[in-house]
Amino acid sequence: xxxxxxxxxxxxxxKLDISRVFKAPRGKVWEAWTDPKAIAKWWGPEGMIPIVxxxxxxxxxxxxxxxxxxxxxTVWVSGSFKEVVREKRLVFSWAWDHGDRHVTKVTVSFxxxxxxxxVRLVHELFLTKDDRDNHETGWASTLTCLGAALAGKGKAAA
Length: 158
Known about the structure:
Blueprint: H1 11-14, E1 15-22, H2 26-34, H3 36-39, E2 49-55, E3 62-68, E4 74-85, E5 89-96, E6 104-113, E7 116-124, H4 129-150
């Protein structure tokens, strides 16, 4: 009896990798990612209002954050912290509270760069290329909001 062949998706279809350099010291960028009060100032794509219900950036601890649209619709995401290395790396699971709740993995690394801090965000284990692409758009916009917050400009508008 022959085993059914399964076709694995190429990693490029199930993983996104975004890097940005922010004009801020590594400690300030780290704090923006790990302090719930700081996250509440920038989390989520442009035009979304961040909500931080739970957020403790320690290994094994959980988070739950929301993003509220102008029309009042709110989407929630939650997960747990897998690795927390101060000012170096943050690894956490990611699952939307709606739909199939498929769990993905986010790794954020922090490195010194000329004029600031380089943030590399790798989000992986997507089921489809469309899921990956939707998250890429969301993360790109979210990182724009982070840049605005680090520059003291507040949440970026849509």
